[in-house]
Amino acid sequence: MKKKLLLIAITTAILALTITPMVAFAQDQETTTAVRPIKDGLAIVAPRAAAVGQLISMTVFQCSDQTTVEGAGVWAVTPDKVESLKGEMSNLKNLSPVDQDKKNEELLNLHGIFIGRTDATGKVWHTFNTAGSYMLVTFKPGYWHDMRLIVVGKPAGTIPRLVIDAPDKAEVGEKITITVIEKANQEPVKDAGVWALSREKAEAIKAQFSSQSTVTDQDAVAAQVENALNLSGIFLGTTNGAGKLNYAFENAGGYLLVTFKRGFLPGYRPILIGSTPKVLSIDAPSKAKVGEKITITVTEKNSQDAVKDAGVWVLTRENALSVKSQMDALKTAGDANAILAQIESTLNIHGIFLGTTNGAGKVQYTFENAGGYVLVTFKPGYWPGFKPILIVSEQLKPTTSNSAATLQ
Asked: Residue 98 needs a FRET pair 20 to 30 A away by CA distance; which of 118, 197, 227, 317 works?
C-alpha cells in the first residue's frame, strides 16, 4: 500500500513538472500571437495618368479577399523622395509591429503629401494642382503598404493659344505691324517670338507641334519648338508690351508667320509679300448663235482701262471650274509671280486659244459649235478674268436654257 502511494506521488510530481512548462509556453504563444499577428496586404487602384485639375478616385482593397478597406491613408510622394522612403521603411523590420506602424506613418508624412483616408467604400478623392509624376502610397496600421505610380499632366486644351494679327499682303520693304494676343482673353502678349517660314517648312513644323501637344513635359517641348523654328524660319523679333512687332520683308514670296512663347500653343498667319497683281475683266455677250462673230473686250477690273495683248481662251464649263479652283487656291500659296507663270500653260492645256487683244483691248471670234462655255483672259502681271457664254444653234431659242445663269 505504501509502495502504491509513493508511486502515485512520484507520478504526480513528474506530471506537474511536465505540464507547467507547457502551460507557460502556451500562454507565451497566445501572448506572441496577440502582439505579432500575421499582416494582410493593401492594394491601391488609381488611374495611371490624370490631368491637372481633374478629380480622380483611388480605391484601397485588402489583398486576401479583395474587400475594400476603410480608413487607409493615401500619400503622394515625388520621385526624388521615393527611394529614400523605401530605404527608411525597410529599416523598420526589427521594431515591434506597433512601433513599426507608428514609424511608417511618420515617414510617409515626412516624405509625402497626405491626400486623405478612404471612406466606407474604400475610396478617397483628390485633385492634383501641379503636373508631374507621383508615387501613390497607401498604408493602414496592421497592413503592409502598397505603391502605385501616377503621371499628372496639363491637357493641351487648357494651354492658352497665341493668335497673330497681321496684313494678308504687303510690298517688299513695306514696314508692317504684327500683333500677338492670347486667343481666349484677347489680351496682348509680351515677349512672344515671331518667325517667318516658307510654306513647305511651315507644314512640317505644324505637324511636329501637333504631335507634341499632349506631352506632359512642356519645358522640353518648348525647347524643341524654339530650336525647330530657329532652324527652319527667319526670326523677326519679339513683341513689346503691347504685343506688337514691326518688320519689313526684303524678299517677295508667300510666308507663314509663326508666333511662340513658353507656356502657350503657337499661332499662325499666312502673308504674301510682293506686288499685288491687277485683275482682268471680260466684257462679251452672254449668248450668241453658232457662226455669229462676237467681240470680246478685256479691261483692268478696277480702272476699266483696255488691256492690250491679253490672251483669251475658251474652256468647257467643267474645265473652267477646275482651273478657277486651282487658281483661287494658288492666290495664297506663295510667290505671285511664280504662280502667274504657271497659269498660261494651264490654260493652253485645258482650253482653246482664241487670240490676243488689240490696242483697244478687243478680240473677235466665231463659235462653230453650240454649248455652254467659259471665256478666260490672262496676261502676265494680272490675275485672270472669267466670263460664261452660251452658244446656241439657230433652231434653238436662248431662253429655253438657263445654262449661262448656272455659270455666274
From this structure: 118
